[in-house]
Amino acid sequence: MPNGYRIFCLYPSPPSSNPEAGLSLDSVCDSPGLALPLPAPVPLVAALARAAVPASVCDSPILPDIETTPTPSSAAPAQAAVLASSTPPFANWSSKLLLGWHFSGSTVKSVGEFDRLVEILSHPEFDLKELLGVSFTCETKRLAKHLANPESKLQNQDGWHCASVDIRLPPVGKQTVKPESESLVFMVSGIYHRRLVDIIQATYAAPVSHTFHMTLFRQYWRPTSDAPPILLYSEVYSSPGMIEAHLEITSMPRMGLDNTHERIVAPLMVWSDSTHLASFGTASLLLFYLLFGSQSKYTRARPTSKSAHHLAYIPTIPDTIQEAYMKVFGKAATSAMLRHCKRDLIHAIWLLLLDANFMEAYEHGMLIKCGDGIVRRIFPWFLTYSADYPEKVLLASIRSLAKCLCPRCLVEKNQVYKIGSKLDMRLHKKMARQDDAPRRHAVEVARKIIYKQGYGIESTAVDALLADKSWVPTWVSQLYCTPDRVTNLRIDTWQNAFSMKLSKYGFNFYDLFVVDLLHEFELGVWKAIFTHLLRILWAAAGTKYRN
Predict the structure, then answer these.
(1) Could you tell me if residue 112 is inside a domain?
(2) Of 10, 133, 383, 394, which sits most exposed with the smallest number of CB within 10 A?
């Protein structure tokens, strides 16, 4: 039935929940100038779950405060039973209560946080004498050590992991050529990440899933009672692409006992951005974070909703790579080689994230008891990838600002001036990039030229194969090694992590990279354009402009 604005929804199947029932403006409004109801206090168990980081992570100089916005855990009831029965790993009840206050609530302690502290100090189990000689640092490390134990009943299953990946270093000349399987392996460590399936499991099992649209729909507006309905484009869960995905998974044949569970799509929206780690110096980090398109964009836009789930922290190529080159080849790596290694690194990390558990869930779905108590089979589905242009070219395996500079199409640089015209839109559709066999073959041949014949990454021989469409010789190697990491058992190679894992399902990874106005225009780019327009105005108008 249409609502008061004559808007109605058309579902492909009866919905099992209505997340918009009972919503108010407070649910989607978030502004420092507005008075809003105070949020419900965070339970002690959930607060302590925020500290569910292995000791190696807590001690890391890179990530001193890694779990400030955790994903709610579905293991809270079990943790509550443990906390109610004993105080380990804490020294006593008082230290447990105090740490619970510290890890919950706002990260900036204010008047409201002071009131919460008074509640902690007034707790019947709190005894100030117990805190004599208790060190907050020791208590935090004790908690981290306890949680790092896989057998711990407080173990947070959607927590952080530390891993390393290997990349193949290209030779510096024809005198040092070897087959790629025998080329120098460089290990990049300190990759802190969370497993995709863990984030999906924890999020959909948490109470926040009440705000998710499980069943997708089309939304229409009928201006008058006798007017034809007009299709509305607003949210991810009412977009044509997600309707197609929903119809695809619901039409899949059911196997075994799975004949009653509702099948839903979990639209994954990935973001990545570089950030500086210090006010002085060049230390930086690449952050991956994940949002769910099932949640309204108005909720996702609220900073206090904590809808963004941190996925991975990616270090830059360490300086020791030059030491490895000098030791093996006697020469330093060129800037072109370092760019090549950076591309290989980003795709090796995505191979790490697209693990076997995720691919099983991607193909067959995963059964999750959602926050409303209904068990559903959830299929993760990559919908968008938002990043600024330098990161997009890394992920799309193309050259930055080259002949075909767009990650989504093959429109050449000399045609950019047509942007915004109808002809430009037709060119974008006609010349869309495809992850096809010719591209993979060209990259494979270029890779052989580099490693077997010793040609440079950006040599004329390589450019003859790849430059016409701005491709790059990115070729991810997935190594399966013995425990001592000495003898390689098998090497699987591919040109792009998304291509390797998802192309067999008809997935074209170039479609992932959507236009992101915040990254690509609204921040520094618009400021630079506006400054340039002022310069033009100043030069053209002169004294008249000054007056």
Answers:
(1) yes
(2) 133
> What residues contact residue 506 under an 8 Å CB cut-off, 6+ apart?
none
Per-residue pLDDT tens over the stretch 314-366: 988 888 999 999 988 888 999 999 999 999 999 999 999 999 999 999 999 99
Give the count of domains, the chain.
1
Q: For the segment 269-295, what is each residue's pLDDT rounded down to a tens digit?
A: 999 988 877 777 777 788 999 999 999
Q: 169: helix, coil or strand?
A: coil
Q: What pLDDT shows up at residue 156? A: 56
**Within a domain: 149:** yes
The percent of the chain in helix, strand and coil, each rounded to the nearest 5, is 40, 15, 40
What's the pTM value of the predicted model, to 2 decimals? 0.76
Q: How far apart are the first and last CA of the chain?
A: 60
pLDDT average, residue stretch 130-159: 74
Question: ∠ CA 335-390-513 to the nearest 5 degrees?
Answer: 140
Smallest CA-to-CA distance from 30 within 245, 249, 306 is with 306
Amino acid at site 187: M
Helix (H, G, I), strand (E, B) or coil at 359: helix
Q: Which DSSP helix (H) or strand (E) runs through 175? A: none
Coil, helix or strand at residue 349: helix
The answer, yes or no, to whether the previous bond of 438 is cis (omega within 30 of 0) is no
- What mean pLDDT do residues 419-430 have? 90
Identify residue 17 by its one-letter amino acid code.
Answer: S
Write down the pLDDT at residue 127. 85
Is 398's pLDDT higher than 90?
Answer: yes
Distance CA 51, CA 147 (A): 8
Residue 58 lies in a domain: yes
Count the Cβ atoms, other than its own, within 10 Å of residue 293.
Answer: 24
3-state class (DSSP) for residue 355:
coil
* Residue 388 placed within a domain: no
Calpha distance 176→507 (Å, rounded): 38
State phi, psi for 520 to the nearest 5 degrees.
-100, -10
Give the domain extent around 57.
42-68+76-155
* Cα-Cα-Cα-Cα dihedral sign, residues 536, 542, 544, 546: positive
- How many CA atoms are closer than 13 Å to the CA of 219, on its beta-carbon side? 15
